[in-house]
Amino acid sequence: MQALTETEVEILDKTVDQDIQKLVIYNDDINTFDWVIATLIEVCGHSNEQAEQCTIIIHYKGKCSVKEGAFEELKGMRNEICRRGISAEIH
User: Fold this and answer.
1) 80: Cβ–Cβ under 8 A, 6 or more apart, which residues?
2) Where are the extended beta strands (E) located within 1-91?
3) pLDDT tens-digit profile of 7-22?
4) Contact 91, 49 (CB under 8 A)
5) Residue 36 contacts by C-beta under 8 Å, 6 or more apart in sequence?
6) DSSP secondary-structure letter at 22?
7) What are the 10-residue block averages of pLDDT along the chain, 91 residues in total?
8) Which residues are paired to 24 by β-bridges?
9) Which domains does the chain have, with CATH numbers?
10) Of 3, 10, 22, 34, which has the fewest beta carbons less than 10 angstroms from its beta carbon?
């Protein structure tokens, strides 16, 4: 097995140091499928198909993890989703 380069070690250290969080959206009786789909596309960068699948999971399961990443990366997305009237939390 070949030893890692200094750059590869730095990348691994950064990856391990980041605590991966999940952005979770919750179901409600207020927002429409189309509104949630549009929000996922605009805020999270989902494809139409990905947004539709997440929205169906939210509807039937009550919640769905729609994005993973570092807390700081997800915070702005969560804030914008909540600003649009959709319940979201970072776990």
Assistant:
1) 39, 43
2) 21-26, 63-69, 88-90
3) 766 666 665 556 899 9
4) no
5) 25, 51, 54, 55, 58, 86
6) E
7) 67 65 97 98 98 98 97 97 98 95
8) 65, 89
9) 18-90 (3.30.1390.10)
10) 3
